[in-house]
Write the structure tokens for this entry.
Amino acid sequence: MVVTNQLFDQLQELVPDLSIRPAVGDRIVGLSWHTWDLAASQPAEYPPEGEPEGYIWDRAHEPDVAAAMDAMSELLMPVVDCTYREVDPDDPDSKMDVVVPDAKLPLWFRTRAEWGDFIVAEPIYGWLRQNVQQWLTFKPFDYKIA
């Protein structure tokens, strides 16, 4: 997860053990996504290959856009090896069952090192919903201790 350094400072007040590393901006492109109709059933434009990464990778790096951006960093979160399954895989709003290895968990962690979900404790969830909900998707889950 990449955040502005300003957002990281706010998050670190809530979760002091969060750490970051500078994000590498090898390919920064101007993409006016904030003007898109988020209520539309389909985007007005799809990348040629149809994959979301194409919005970035199919365009050339724009140094002037990169220079105008705020400093960005990658959040480095602890990884807790979890197993999980969707209760109803056909329902995108269904809960998930998550099996955690231990009852003592960080306030915010990833379930896998690559492509893992982010799991947050209630106080962080409330803060995220209040401050950055428009950029995140939340999904409820039940957990069991292994």
